[in-house]
Design brief:
The complex is a heterodimer of chains A (142) and B (395). Chain A has a five-stranded antiparallel β-sheet, sandwiched between helices. In chain A, 39% of the residues lie in helices and 23% in strands. With 142 residues, chain A is of the alpha+beta class. The termini of chain A are far apart. Chain B has 395 residues and is of the alpha+beta class. In chain B, the strands form five sheets. A six-stranded mixed β-sheet of chain B has the order 7-6-10-15-16-17, sandwiched between helices. Chain B has a five-stranded antiparallel β-sheet with strand order 2-1-4-3-5. In chain B, strand 6 and strand 7 form a beta hairpin. The two termini of chain B are 25 Å apart. The chains are: A alpha+beta (142), B alpha+beta (395). Chains A and B meet through helix 3, strand 2, strand 4, strand 5 and strand 6 of A and strand 9, strand 12, strand 14 and helix 6 of B. Strand 6 of chain A pairs parallel with strand 14 of chain B, so a sheet runs across the interface.
C-alpha cells in the first residue's frame, strides 16, 4: 500500500519535466514508438548520387525514377509515414557483414531505403527502390 | 624509392641496365625515314622504356612498380623506325603473374632479345641465377626450350617458356618464388595476358608510355590520347601502378568471387617528385567488394609521402554484383547492381582522409573508367562527390 503514492508522485514528476529534457521515462516511450529512422548525411548523399549520377542513369530508367530530383524527396517520419516505415523495416533483411543503419525517403510514388555501413569495412552499401505498393524495383550497390 | 623493399629477382637486372639520365632523343629515327642503323651502330644509343611491376615477397607492399628507361644500341633499331608494345610476363604455377613488363621498343627480334635479356635474370654470366635457370642462362638456351608444354609462340625466334626452378621448393635466396615458372614474351599485348598496359595498337598511345617520364621520346604530348591533363593520372609510375592493381584484381574472372579489390597509396618521392603507387599491405583484407583495413588503422598509418589513395572495383557499371552485400526483401535475396565510381564507404573514407590531409586525392578504377572523387561532409562539404572521370588508357 505504501508504494502507490510513491509511484504516482514519480510519474507526476516525470510528466512535469521540461519539454525535451531526457528522462528514463521519455526514452522508453520514444524507443517503443519511433518507427521511421532518422536522417543521416551519408544516406542523403547516397540518395543524391542515385538520383543524379550519370552512372546510375540506367538504373533510374529501370526503376522509373528519372526526373526525380533530390529536392523532391522527403524523409519518412513517424507523424505521417509510420505504417510505410514499419512495412519496409519489417520486410527488409540487411546483409550481416557489417552493422548498417537504414534511412527511408520517398518521392513521387517511390520509396528509397539507404542502408549505411556503420563498421570499419570499406564496402558497398545497398540502396533499395520500391514502388508505392512496396514491390522492390531494384537495388543499387553504392 | 625508399618506400620499397629490395626487389625480387625479376627485373632486377633491368634496374641495373636502365639508364638514369635524360638522354638525347634525336637518336631515334623518325617514322618514315629509313636510316641505316648500322651506320651508327654501337656508337650512340636510343632510349626506350618499360613499365614494370613485380610481386614483393617481403615487406608491406604486394607489388613494386617501376618505370625503366632501357638503352638500346642503334644497331637493334628497326630500319623503318617502327615500335611495338613488348610485354614480358612471369607467372607462377598458379598462373598468377608475379612480374610484368610492358615495353615500347623497336620492332626487331634483336631489340626483343636485348630487352628480354636485361629484364629477366637469365643473362649469360649473370650472377642472378635461380634454380635451374643457371643451366639456361644463355639466350640460345631460352629460345630452344620449345619442348616445354607451356611454351608460347610469341614471334620470330621468340618461343619462350621455361621451367626455371624445381617445383615446390619455396623461395630462393634472392626472393624469387621457386616453382614452375613460366616466362612469356610477347610482341602482341593481347596475345598472352589481358591485364597490364595495352594501347590498343595505337602508336601514339604506345609512345605515351615513356613520353612524360623524360625517358627520351620525341612524341608530341598534344597528340597523346592517353594524356588526361591530370599530373597524377599522367604519371608513368601511377599508370603502371594502376595497371598492375587492375590486373591483380582479376576483373575478367567470370566467377565474381575470384575477383578482389586492390588498393594503394599514391606516393610522391620527396627528392625527385616522381609519383608511384605503394600497394596496401598484406594486412588489408581484399574481397570482391571490399577492402578491410587492419585493426587499429588510422590516418596516422598513412605513409608520410602519400598524396592520395586509389583502389579498384573489378565490376562494370550496371553489373549484377552477386558477391557484394545483398539484401533480402520478404525473404527473397535481392542482388545489387554496381553503380560506377566510388561507393559511399569510399567517399566516407575520403571524408576521413581529408580531415587528416585536406589535399588528399581519391581515385577508383572500375571496368568503365577511373573516377576522381572527394568527401562531401567534412572538411569539404558539398554535394558533388565526383570530380572527374578518366578513361583507362591501355588496360
Amino acid at each position: 500500500m505504501l508504494n502507490y503514492p510513491w509511484i504516482i508522485l514519480s510519474l507526476v514528476g516525470l510528466a512535469s519535466a521540461e519539454p525535451g529534457t531526457p528522462t528514463a521515462f521519455t526514452h522508453m516511450k520514444l524507443a517503443s514508438v519511433e518507427v521511421c529512422p532518422p536522417d543521416q548525411p551519408r544516406a542523403r548523399r547516397m540518395l543524391e548520387r542515385y538520383l543524379t549520377a550519370p552512372a546510375a542513369t540506367g538504373l533510374r530508367q529501370e526503376h522509373g525514377t528519372e526526373g526525380i530530383s533530390p529536392s523532391d524527396v522527403h524523409l519518412l517520419v513517424d507523424s505521417s509515414d509510420s505504417a510505410a516505415c514499419r512495412t519496409l523495416i519489417s520486410g527488409i533483411g540487411l546483409p550481416n557483414d557489417t552493422p548498417r543503419a537504414m534511412t527511408i525517403y520517398s518521392a513521387r510514388g517511390r520509396y528509397f531505403v539507404a542502408a549505411i555501413n556503420q563498421g570499419t569495412v570499406v564496402t558497398q552499401n545497398p540502396f533499395m527502390v520500391f514502388d508505392a505498393n512496396f514491390s522492390l524495383l531494384g537495388v543499387a550497390g553504392m | 624509392m625508399g618506400h620499397y623493399m629490395s626487389s625480387s629477382a625479376i627485373f632486377a637486372a633491368a634496374l641495373a641496365a636502365a639508364g638514369c639520365g635524360q638522354l638525347p632523343t634525336d637518336a631515334r629515327p623518325s617514322p618514315g625515314s629509313t636510316p641505316d642503323p648500322h651506320s651508327v651502330a654501337d656508337i650512340s644509343e636510343s632510349v626506350f622504356g618499360c613499365r614494370t611491376s613485380n610481386v614483393q615477397l617481403a615487406g608491406p607492399q604486394r607489388y613494386h612498380y617501376s618505370w625503366l628507361r632501357v638503352r638500346l644500341p642503334n644497331s637493334v633499331i628497326a630500319r623503318d623506325g617502327q615500335l611495338i608494345q613488348y610485354k614480358l610476363i612471369v607467372a607462377n604455377e598458379g598462373e598468377a603473374a608475379v612480374g610484368i613488363a610492358n615495353c615500347t621498343i623497336p620492332n626487331t627480334p634483336e631489340a626483343m632479345r636485348y630487352v628480354t635479356e636485361r629484364l629477366l635474370p637469365l643473362r649469360q654470366g649473370s650472377s642472378r641465377t635461380i634454380g635451374r635457370s643457371r643451366e639456361i642462362s644463355a639466350w640460345g638456351s631460352i629460345a630452344s626450350s620449345q619442348g616445354n608444354t607451356n611454351s608460347t609462340e610469341v614471334g620470330p625466334g621468340l618461343r619462350l617458356s621455361i621451367a626455371a626452378a624445381p617445383s615446390g621448393v619455396g623461395a630462393s635466396a634472392d626472393g624469387w618464388p621457386l616453382g614452375q615458372v613460366t616466362i612469356w614474351a610477347s610482341p602482341d599485348p593481347y596475345g598472352v595476358y589481358t591485364g597490364g598496359w595495352q594501347c590498343n595498337g595505337n602508336p601514339n598511345c604506345a609512345d605515351a608510355s615513356h613520353g612524360d617520364s623524360g625517358g627520351g621520346d620525341a612524341q608530341d604530348p598534344g597528340n597523346d590520347p592517353c594524356k588526361t591533363g591530370n599530373p597524377v593520372m599522367d604519371s608513368p609510375g601511377v599508370q603502371q601502378g594502376m595497371a598492375g592493381m587492375w590486373a591483380a584484381s582479376d576483373p575478367e574472372k567470370p566467377k565474381q568471387s575470384d575477383r578482389k579489390e586492390r588498393g594503394g597509396w599514391i606516393i610522391k618521392d620527396p627528392d625527385t617528385n616522381e609519383l608511384s603507387i605503394q600497394e596496401l599491405g598484406s594486412d588489408w583484407v581484399s574481397a570482391p567488394c571490399s577492402i578491410t583495413p587492419p585493426p587499429g588503422f588510422t590516418t596516422n598509418n598513412i605513409p608520410d609521402h602519400a598524396i592520395g589513395w586509389i583502389h579498384t572495383h573489378p565490376f562494370e557499371n550496371g553489373e549484377i554484383a552477386t558477391t557484394c552485400p545483398s539484401t533480402t526483401w520478404k525473404g527473397i535475396t535481392a542482388y545489387s547492381k554496381y553503380i560506377g565510381g566510388p561507393s559511399d564507404d569510399d567517399v566516407h573514407a575520403a571524408d576521413t582522409y581529408e580531415i587528416a590531409r585536406p589535399t588528399f586525392q581519391s581515385y577508383v578504377i572500375d571496368k568503365n573508367q577511373i573516377t576522381r572523387f572527394k568527401g562531401t561532409i567534412a572538411p569539404n562539404p558539398g554535394a558533388d562527390v565526383l570530380l572527374a572521370n578518366y578513361g583507362r588508357c591501355g588496360y
